[in-house]
Design goal:
The protein has a single domain, classed as Rossmann fold (3-Layer(aba) Sandwich), CATH 3.40.50. 36% of the residues lie in helices and 21% in strands. It contains twelve helices and ten strands. The chain is globular and about 55 Å long. It comes from Colwellia asteriadis.
Amino acid sequence: MKLLLITFTLLFLLSGCSVNITKDNFIYQDEKVEVQLDLAAISAKITNDADLTTVSTVSLVTDAGETLKGVQLLHEKARVNIVLFGGSGMKISQSAAILNNFASIPANVMWFDYRGVGVSERKGELNLEDILQDSLQVFDLAKRSLPTNIPMVVHGISMGSIVGSALANERTLDGLVLDGAISSVPELVENTVPAWSKIFSTVTVSPELAQLNNIDFIKQYKNPLLFLAGTEDTITPIAFSQALFDISGSEVKTLATISESKHGMSMKSAAAIKAYTVFIDQITGSGVP
């Protein structure tokens, strides 16, 4: 979400009155999408159980006729399937090292760039509803393609936490992981905008973004739920995850605080891998007395 922060800061520096946050300055888009992923470079980042993992590209054509592209990590001893939704501006070509962390769980992972980002194309105007619909098609592909004898989990990072929660109310998951979770877009904006700038400017959130409320999604979701919250995360602080944890109706839920972890960096920590291990045990019943 650092690109979001840069956008907000520039808006406030250039404005002396009011700023309206819309999808166009909330969701990162590339000026030109990449031609293809460098599989050799991605594979080189997988050092955990490298001899047991295989990395390949995946793609799908959406109902809107746009081609989304991504990457798939398969681990011979995977305990869980994970469908990953990253943060705004988190594209595979620059963030593929996170796959190495998932390999240490170990897990199978399917991860697509959002439309208009990385290697995924965008033909028309960006629409939030289209992104949410894309997520359903990505999940359905993962459900068809990945092994069926292990749990299916959705992992959403930052903006992806909203995408994942919305998906979880449309599809049946074995578990949901919210990493650096956003409680609501208005609250995120309020937390992100520097206090000093509010003296000179006012900020509003467009109705389209304002309706993206993770609290409503989490109230409806009842299956196993894991929050990963970094103690050094100033963008989506622990309080955001705590609020969602408190209102969740899930009988199996955990809030794991990751020491010294900044925004979007939780999976680099051994504590996050341990939390995942316990979570998988809870889902499969192997960790329940």
